[in-house]
Amino acid sequence: MTLEQSIKHYASVAPDNVAVVCGTQQTTYKELWAKIEQRCEELRQEGVEPHRPYVFRGSQDTDFLVTYCAVHAIGAIAVPLEAQAPADRFEAISQEVKSCVYDDDIVDILYTTGTTGRSKGVMLSERALVSCADNFIADLGFTSELLFIISGPLNHIASLFKIHPTLTIGGAICVLDGLKDINAFFEVFELPFRKFATFLVPASIRLVMQLAYDKLCAVSDKIDFIETGAAPITHHDMKQLSEALPNARLYNTLGGTEIGAVCTYNFNDGRYMEGCIGRPMKNSTVEVTPEGNIIVSGLTIMSGYVADEESTNRVLKDGKIYGSDLGYIDEDGLIHLKGRQGDVINVGGFKVDPSEVEGAIASHPSVRDSICVADTHPVIGTVLKLLVVMEEGVALDKRSLALHIKSKLEPYKVPTYYEAVPSIQRTYNGKLDRKFYKK
User: Fold this and answer.
1) What's the CA gap between 242 and 193, in Å, rounded?
2) 304: left (phi > 0), else alpha (psi -120 to 50), else beta?
3) pLDDT tens-digit map of 370-395
4) What SS3 state is found at 159?
5) I need a surface site. Which of 121, 322, 327, 379 has the fewest CB within 10 A?
6) 247 C-beta neighbours (distance < 10 Å), count
7) Which of 221-230, 326-335, 346-355 shows the lowest per-residue confidence on average (mean pLDDT)?
8) What angle do CA 300, 117, 291 make, to 5 degrees?
9) C-beta of residue 431 within 8 angstroms of C-beta of residue 152
């Protein structure tokens, strides 16, 4: 069933079951479906038509879900933007999507964060969304007993991909406004649910472990699983999280707006393999070319980009997505990521994946966050530069950082320059904003 069909179904067979928790407000399936029906009438009165896009800002509350589902229920196309989208961006996207004609199966247009170029509108079909939900239910074990905690922006694919499977299977979601209040995150575990799960980008996992490791250990027996993705997670962080949650399933997932959710690896296996994304999920196929390019096909992939046939044809060929991820398949058939085309830095003829350097420094006790970028040396040309956020009260010690990285990586991967910075630029969904640092 679709998300909307599922909500309507549970509103009939389990009307008093909680569907959404937001602050002190709990909304049952019956109440949620009634709100969706009311919003459908409001949208029709606004003139929203089937197979036409409806652009709206994504609030971090139950109202977002009501609008999102109502748009689908009347047969229109949901185009949710971030809550703080500037008026100019909102208007530009509105004009772009309204000037196009869409196939009848398109239900979502999600705009990428644009970390590797111009933000593009990704067209997703009903089949893609249902197949992604099916992937998660089958491979991560979503059940009706689950309360899934969502702290990321609801308009982003990482959050939408958790709303769909959770409510499709009859579970409940809890919406938080980010992780600005760590106490609010842990208060959720006091709610009367049997199982809890969440998605956290690696930066958020590190934040939770730095600020509230003891609290995390205290709720260990309540956590069914935690999923991460969107950025590399280090061996150090995998190991530390696994030690805090020895009985939980801890997944590193390959996913994206264009490809859906396609691979996952439970890293709570004692190996904590950096870059490993496991095996393909049930509705997805992943290939790795001899050159190391990862190709994705299956039921979860996008239908194309809005008003950008050239980019669509460059990425989507013969039903397969040719993205920028690089990787390999090991002797056990597990797929590993090795960075992204465009991120790799050429240092004296050696190609360096900056995430390797960031992963190596992550276990240094004085480093809170980092990003590795390209810089120029007056004699040898392109070199590596490491920008680091030091722990409070700790001064930058270049030699200590260099020796730490040298103990883990080849000499050519050790940065030449080091600089302490107050913060690292990230996108609103937690990814390192590498485009921001490119000269």
Assistant:
1) 22
2) left
3) 999 999 988 778 899 999 999 999 99
4) helix
5) 379
6) 9
7) 346-355
8) 65
9) no
**431 CB-near residues (< 8 Å, 6+ apart):** 113, 115, 201, 230, 231
The helix/strand/coil state of 297 is strand
- Number of other residues whose CB lies within 10 A of the CB of residue 110: 20
345 burial via Cβ count (<10 Å: 0-12, 13-18, 19+): buried
Q: Is 365 helix (H, G, I), strand (E, B) or coil?
A: coil
C-alpha–C-alpha distance, residues 24 and 324, integer Å: 42
Which residues are within 8 A (CB) of 110 and not within 5 positions of it... i.e. 6 or more apart?
A: 79, 80, 121, 122, 124, 155, 156, 157, 160, 257
8 A C-beta contact, residue 57 and residue 83: yes
Which amino acid type is present at position 339? G
Residues listed for the chain: 439
Q: What's the distance, CA 154 to chain centroid? A: 11
Q: Which long-range contacts (CB under 8 A, 24 or more apart) does 368-376 make?
A: 368/206, 368/210, 369/203, 369/206, 369/423, 369/424, 370/424, 371/424, 371/425, 371/432, 371/434, 371/437, 372/345, 372/415, 373/345, 373/434, 373/437, 373/438, 374/345, 374/438, 374/439, 375/416, 375/417
Helix axes 62-73, 3-13, angle to 10 degrees: 110
Angle at which helices 3-13 and 157-168 cross, to 10°: 40
Asked if residues 324 and 340 have their Cβ atoms less than 8 Å apart, the reply is yes
